[in-house]
Each structure stands twice: as C-alpha cells, then as structure tokens.
DNA sequence: TGGTCGCCTGAAACCGGTTTCCGTTAACCG
DNA sequence: CGGTTAACGGAAACCGGTTTCAGGCGACCA
C-alpha cells in the first residue's frame, strides 16, 4: 500500500500549499521561498510521497524508456549487447524494454506496439521486416545495431569485412591452407552475411577457389558440435574451419578434440567475437575481437541524443573497428595481436 | 510523425461524435450503434489513429509492464530465464523491463524506481537487499526466482537439494569416489548455496568427509577453465569435480582435456542445468536438469495473476522438480536418466 | 507617498485517454 | 394512445502529474 493514495493534490492539501508549488519543489524548478520549500519537503518526507511515473510521463510527453529488440538470446554476444545498452540507458534514468521476436509470427506487430511505449528503439539487424522498421522510425528514433537500416535509419555495426578478410588471407597465405570451410548461416544475420562475403572475397583476392557454400548452422555451441560431427568425419577433411562466431568455434573445437584430432596440427579452427573463454581454451582460439558492449552503448547514446535533441539526430552509419587476434588454434606460435582495421 | 497530433478528441471531432463514443468503439466496451461505429472506425482507419499508451495506462492505473531484475547476464541460464519470462508476458500484452544490478552500488534504489514503472517484478534470488525487496513488495506484487523471499514474498525455485544429494551420493557410492571438490561460490546465489549444502549433507549421510571449502569462482566457462588450471595441476588431484553449473563444468572439461587428462578415467566432472551443449560434448556431461524457462514462466504467471486478481495473490513457494542426468563424464557407461525428485 | 519592478504563489489549463452519469429517443406493451 | 423501459450518446469528471498565466506583495526608487 504505502504511498498508494498519495497524489500531488493530497500533499498540497497537507502542506497547505498549491499543487503547483509541490511540483516545483519536487522537481527543483521555478522559484520557491525557503518557508514553502520546508513545508512541502516536510509533508513529502513524512508521508513518503513519490510522484507517479505515469502522470509525470504523460505530462512530459516522454516515456523515460528505451526499447531493445533482438531475434532471440543465444550466447555471450547478446548478453554483452544487453548489458552495454543497459549500462548507458540507466544513468540517463531510462528503463529498458526488451522484446525477443524469435519464433513469433507477429513480431512486426509487437515491435510497433513497443514503439508506442518507449522514446526510442534499438533493433538488431535482420530481426524485423524493413517495412516495420520504417514504420517504427516514423514514430520514434530508431537505430539498427549490427546491420544497416533502410532509408535514413542510422546504424551502428562492427567492421566485419576488414578483419574477416585479414583472417582469411592469413590462413590462406601465412599458413598455406587452401581448403577452408565456413560455418555459419549468412541468411541468419547481416553480420554473418558480411563475414561470409569477406571470406569469399579474400579467397578471390589471392586466387584460391572458395567453397561453394557455407555450412549453414545457427550460432550456438551445440550447433558447432554438430557441425564438427559432420565436417570431421568425412574423409577429405577440411584443413581449416572458419566459424561465424566463437561459440560455434568452441563447439567445433570440443567436437574435434573429442574425436581425437589435434588442433591446429590436424585441423585449424577460428572464431569471431573474442569471447572471454576464447583466450583460455587449449589451444587458445584465433578470432576477431569486436566491441560488442560498445556497439550497444553507442546505439543507446545515439537514441538518447535523438530523443533529447531531435534537431541533431544523426542518420549516418557508425562502424566500430575490430581487431584480428592470432592465437594457437590457427597454427600461430603464441598469442599475438595483428593490426586493427576499420573506421 | 504519422499519428503525432491524433488524439481521441481529434478523432471525435472528425467523426462528428463524442470522445466517449470513440473510446467505446476503440475498446469494444459499452453499446454503440452500427452507424456510429462505422463512422468512428472510418475516421480511425483513415487517419491511422492508435490510442496513446500513456493516457490509457494513466486512466487504467496500470502500466501494462512487468519487471525482471537480475544480477548480471552470464551464460545460457539467464538467457533462458529471460526468454521464459518474456514468452509468458508478451501474450498478456505486458512489456518486459529489465534491470541488471551487476556492479552498481545503487541497485536497491534502481529497483525501487523500477517498482514505480511496472505492475509487478520478478527478482532473481540474491540480487538485492531484503529490505529493498520488502519495500518493493509494498508497492507491487513481487516474486523471487531461484531463491526464497523474506516475509510473505512468494518464490519460485528448482529443487536443488534433492538432485544434488542424489548426484553426490551417486559419485560417492556407485563410483566409489571419496575425493570430490565443489566448484562454485555459495555466497554468490541461493541456488549455489543450496547445492553446496546438499553436497555436504550427502557426504555426511554416507560417512565420507567432505572438503572443507568450495572452490569459490563465479559461474562462467572462463572461471571453470581457471579452476581446472588450479585443481588439476596439483599433485593430489581430486577424483571428481562437482560444478555449480554446466558452464563451469564445460570450462573444467576443456581445461582437463587440454592438459591431456582423460575424462572420466583420470577425473570425473559433473555440472548442473543440463544446457543443450552438455549432451553433445565428448564425454557427454553428467548433470542435473532444471526447468529454467518454466521457472521464469511460472514467476510471470504468478505476477500476472496477482496483478489482475489481487484477492488471490499467492504467498507460497513453488518448487519445480529437477532430474539427475547420468552421462559419461561421471563414469557411467551410456546416457541414462535416473529418477526425478522434488516438488 | 506613489509607481515600478521582481519574486512568489495559486487557480486553471493541459497531457490523452476512460468512465460515470444523465438526458434523449425509440421500441414495446397494455 | 399514454407509459415504462432499454438502448444509446454526450458532457463532464477523473487518472496524477506539469506548466502557463495572472495577481499579490514587498522592496526599491523618485
């Protein structure tokens, strides 16, 4: 119960002042004499009054909330994303609404509904239809994370192509592996799509024929284990397995070690993301570091800016740099960090 | 912009009716003649009017939102939890607010602030102070997930003790391992605390001296790798490593295999949760299956009930059953499922 | 002492919906 | 044909805040 019945009018009555004065005191706006302020604060203190969020939001025409939309939660990537977003939103006194569209047929509708409850939304690339994205952008500021938006919708993403090209060329040239496979589903997300494209382009740039198609699995460790099962059983075993993220790579690694294969001697494995565990496994995983938390934090900042200062709402694309991390799983001798890349 | 300027009064003017009629039509409440309904629907359709959520919420005295509070996101456990919660909230047209308290000093304050923006909150056990929990429960219905609440705060948790006792006895008796260690921090969460207590109790029940203290690490795969480093290097190597969750266990497994140890011949490893990957690694992981998604879904249902029908708000504890899953990592020959327990 | 200015204050309008309450009208019945 | 009733629609109150606007009052100045 507590402060159920307490309204600004009730406090005004108790303090013997007008509601306007109570509002001024509780917000610190306008001029209020010391005597009035004391009386109001006393009444507020005594009865434990806290202004109702809905009333305040209605008057302000602002929800004080930000939305985050993602396809489904799997693995450290999304948890980092959420935490990065949240860490930026909370200090601005904005609460965070989440929406998992995964496996729901009416996600477009759900997202538009969310648009009516928040001041701005970050949408993970590839999550909803472009039409829904545009409609959403008509009602609130929107930022696409890890992908690019249609029209003038701004976006924040990592430089997938640069580092994936470097990684692929590293395997093809330095380690002279000409029989690589790619594990990950390019249809699944813009990120994977870019990585696959860069993987192909790097092959062409050094004159090696790439595989015709990727091993299209989703992004979890279990999928990596299954892919390993399929890949490493076959007789013409690939020399290197380039995975769309670290989770798949760890699954492949576990699968390979479980079959008695040596990494990197028998097969090379690489990941993407540089999750904390990548440096700790044996052999340590060669991968690409991308600033996932920072990606989401930047998205939150863009939205908060667009909300509070609509006149300078950006509509450009932010591309954060990534970094190739060479470790033992690709055949390199020890931990070393190759040059960064990207914007 | 779209429906920016559109209010119920504007639609009423355009349709030539009163605001009450517009409200009745758009909500399907009360009696409205066919002619009026047609005129109103036409105006709504033509201008794309959607009632404002804030105005509606203010009038209804209900936010249409549920809160979920957790310490920090790490691993599949929390992602399952979130998705379970969300899957139950969304069909009830409630949006989900999240709050990571991790590493923030003012979490109690943040949680109380959240309490003013939602209709009910689920709090993961051990996340905030009991005082804050009680104050929160004064303003909105609260359910503790994976833990027990103070006072009359209801809770939903899994039967940790039953299955952990079975697992420990299984290792001590069936496999005759008398030198077990426990990896996980009982201070970290009520779940781990219960599991550690059951681990100790099982030792006593069969007359074996348990280890004096757990290896207190947090719950991520990287922590397991580090724990393995510490445990398996020492000369009096433990015969079995009982981990507080699957992620730690996978880390220990990777660490052990990386050091050239054989599992289960050289060391036995067990987990908790039965994450998807547990069945796929080699050797497959002996663990305890707990219904994480269902845990969160049940919490969401309890809250939704308490919100819509306060008179029959529960204040009891729900304990969901868990199930011992014996696989190869404990030395058992093949996949087999031992009897369930709990509830 | 009269006028002006600036600081405080409160009444009322406003944000965008829902709901109560009452008057009108048509239908139905005796 | 008069009377009762049910169906319908609109004016206004309400949800709980913020903000505008006008007026009161004391201080300062001439």
Automatic annotation (TrEMBL), chains A, B:
InterPro entries: HTH_LacI, LacI/GalR-like_sensor, Lambda_DNA-bd_dom_sf, Peripla_BP_I. One of its GO terms (molecular function) is transcription cis-regulatory region binding. Keywords: DNA-binding, Transcription, Transcription regulation. CDD domains: HTH_LacI, PBP1_LacI_sugar_binding-like. The keyword Manganese does not apply. Gene3D superfamilies: 3.40.50.2300, lambda repressor-like DNA-binding domains. Residues 6-60 form the HTH lacI-type domain. This is LacI family DNA-binding transcriptional regulator. It comes from Micromonospora sicca.
